[in-house]
Amino acid sequence: MILHGFWRSSASWRVRIALGLKGLDWSDRTYRLRAGEQRSDAYLALNPQGLVPALEVDGAVLTQSLAICEYLDELYPDPPLLPSDPLERAWVRGFAQAIACDIHPIQNLKILRMLGQRGLDEDAVQGWAREVIESGLEACSRLIVDRDGPYCFGDQVTLADIVLIPQLGNARRFGARIDFPRIAEVEAACNALPAFAAATPARQPDAE
Amino acid sequence: MILHGFWRSSASWRVRIALGLKGLDWSDRTYRLRAGEQRSDAYLALNPQGLVPALEVDGAVLTQSLAICEYLDELYPDPPLLPSDPLERAWVRGFAQAIACDIHPIQNLKILRMLGQRGLDEDAVQGWAREVIESGLEACSRLIVDRDGPYCFGDQVTLADIVLIPQLGNARRFGARIDFPRIAEVEAACNALPAFAAATPARQPDAE
């Protein structure tokens, strides 16, 4: 498998965690997003969205990090990334999507650049990212506040944790407030796991 | 089941299609989003994100439209909303997420309001929505251009179609270009199905 990604991309980071949890081997192909390498003709032929990550598996190309994680979970079910009960699965997926749909895309590089093109200065752009992340994580913390830990949904890592941890990385990068006790508990538990530790941006080959 | 939604919300629209395809009955509870009813304490207790839709099932609350659709598909597998092959499932989910993560949230009411608060005038805000929708749908059309129709992924309706059709509604509302032949083929095929016809915004009880 070839993971087309970028060290600091939180969507790539999610896939790295999932690959690690499943104990899979992969090779990296990295793109300097700020230089626009993800919009080259060669990459657009792989992923017309011009976004990382993409996962190549035996010549087939998969895009969208959550779809990739679910694919890995279906092919390599141990350890599972989703609970077995349909209602619990829906809660885990809903939490993951609350970040993957309603926080991350609204603070990613592409959107922040569009804001700059509309005349927002750097402070305003950073403030936009902080507002989106803080209000989003506050809602996410409420989704799991009454649940037992140490992970988002109990004593097993799920897709929810895989999406939360990279978003906390983004939160710190933009100086967003992340003092939610339940989220801190999840982060501490995840950080103790080798798959999460190995997937952090600083440990990637293209880290700056 | 109670669907908490709004006639014009494309995420609510997705869930209505899925409920209809499965032949399920539900009751509607509607929120006037422009009046902020989705941010009432009562609704935030149901969904801390303050977004529609939410689906109440026997007192449990599910959020995020794609998670709700997958829940319905797991509980009521006929007709299936995803192919049986893991790679095909990943492609369908990836396409759905290309819209649900990278188009819709960036042009929804909440974000357009944030842009207005940052000083963009109405023309600029509408232009933002058009740009996001046009570039997003162009990428989506490339994801399915080489696939047999009439639906996004062959001769069976999938989650991809459920997400695409409401996004085309948004596209028209903002005057975005949608002249992609493959997408037009999908739309014509879906519009011929009763579940899609019944789910359109104009046919909802709260339509203005």
Topology readout:
The structure is a homodimer.
Chain A: E1 2-5, H1 10-21, E2 27-30, H2 41-46, E3 54-57, E4 60-63, H3 65-75, H4 86-100, H5 109-117, H6 122-144, H7 159-173, H8 181-191, H9 194-199
Parallel strand pairs in A: 1-2
Antiparallel strand pairs in A: 1-3, 3-4
Organism (chains A, B): Sphingobium ummariense RL-3
GO molecular function (chains A, B): glutathione transferase activity; maleylacetoacetate isomerase activity
Protein name (chains A, B): Maleylacetoacetate isomerase
Short synopsis of the structure:
The structure is a homodimer of 208-residue chains. With 208 residues, chain A is of the alpha+beta class.
Task: Tell me what you see in this structure.
Chains A, B: Residues 85-208 form the GST C-terminal domain. Chains A, B: Pfam families: GST_C_2 (PF13410), GST_N_2 (PF13409). Chains A, B: One of its GO terms (biological process) is L-phenylalanine catabolic process. 2 copies of one chain form a homodimer. The relative contact order of chain A is 0.16. Chain A has 9 helices and 4 strands. The first copy, chain A, starts with a strand and ends in a 9-residue tail after the last helix. By secondary structure, chain A is α+β, with helices and mostly antiparallel strands. Chain A folds into 2 domains: 2-78, 3-Layer(aba) Sandwich (Glutaredoxin); 86-196, Glutathione S-transferase Yfyf (Class Pi), Chain A, domain 2 (Up-down Bundle). Helix content of chain A is 52%, strand content 8%. In chain A, helix 1 runs antiparallel to helix 7, helix 4 (86-100) packs parallel to helix 7 (159-173) and helix 7 (159-173) crosses helix 8. At the A-B interface, strand 4, helix 3, helix 4, helix 5 and helix 6 of A face strand 4, helix 3, helix 4, helix 5 and helix 6 of B.
